[in-house]
Amino acid sequence: METADRRKVTIVGCGFVGSASAFALMESGLFSEMVLIDSDSSKAEGEALDISHGLPFAQPMKIYAGTYDDAADSDIIIVTAGAGQKPGETRLDLVKKNVGIMSQIIPQIASRKFGGILLIVANPVDILTYAALKLSGLPENRVIGSGTVLDTARLKYLLGEHLRIDSRSVHACIIGEHGDSEIVAWSSVNVSGVPLSRFCEMRGFYNHTRAMERIANEVKNSAYVIIDKKKATYYGIAMSVRRICEAIIRDEKSILPLSVMQHGEFGPDDVVLSMPVIIGANGPEGMVPMALSTQELDALNASAETLKSIIRETDMK
């Protein structure tokens, strides 16, 4: 990793997600240098110019369109490149198109002896993180996916709205696939240490099951609703990318639900999906032992099987 006075990030893919992430990271002040790469070099150049024009209102940094040679000494390379999710299309429908795109990008990074952390954001993120691991040959702690960080933020936001409290006081987590089989780990949700059901009753809510089902469905369908209304989602994930980069660059040892390779700690094995991990400068440092109900564990294993079936179909084993 680079020293504190020179921090470099590369974003591969300058579509809605990539450009929004670049803007969020420019405003964060985390990096002194940012490289933008896109198959359309003019698009990357335009985004770099546009974002650079805001630097007089931010902290000094260098932002430019570059190549994979420029990316080699980055602390973090963020891959957002991929086919967009269309209305009515699930994240898993994207898999074959985007694995093909990943097979063009990741070898370019690996061949430059990249020494930082590879953050996969393109969807379906769990499958593409698995593909990136296989294609790059990098250690598991250096290849992670953005996972359910955004889903978890959506859950906290909706619970905050439901309870009429600051969402930052809500401690909750989405686990499993970033997609249709994701699981709300309700058994571990609390508000500043107070169990959720008790806090709900403090706020005048007693029909817990019905409210939990409604909120879980709203979280799962959030992307579909946004895509239907504005054709793409990008601000929420851009803020999630910023949060993940903060935890890495500042070596925070924060706990975030990231897509990482599983080795049977909670059942699933040899599959990438989201569980809360301690994340710092050297990547994930270990799983957080969550207390999950039997039903949640069963759902987690079912989510893993969904992902494994897609992996088998794409011949990535």
Q: What report would you give on this structure?
A:
The protein is of the alpha/beta class. The protein has two domains: 8-145, NAD(P)-binding Rossmann-like Domain (Rossmann fold, 3-Layer(aba) Sandwich); 149-313, L-2-Hydroxyisocaproate Dehydrogenase, Chain A, domain 2 (Alpha-Beta Complex), CATH 3.90.110. The protein has ten helices and 14 strands. The protein has helices at 16-28, 41-52, 68-71, 95-110, 125-136, 149-163, 196-202, 208-230, 235-249, 294-313, and strands at 8-12, 33-37, 62-65, 76-79, 117-120, 143-145, 170-171, 174-175, 183-184, 190-191, 194-195, 254-263, 269-280, 283-287. The strands form four sheets. The protein has a six-stranded parallel β-sheet with strand order 3-2-1-4-5-6. Strand 8 (174-175) and strand 9 (183-184) form a beta hairpin. Helix 4 runs parallel beside helix 5 (125-136) and helix 6 (149-163) packs across helix 8 (208-230). The protein is globular and about 55 Å long. It starts with 7 loop residues before the first strand and ends with a helix.
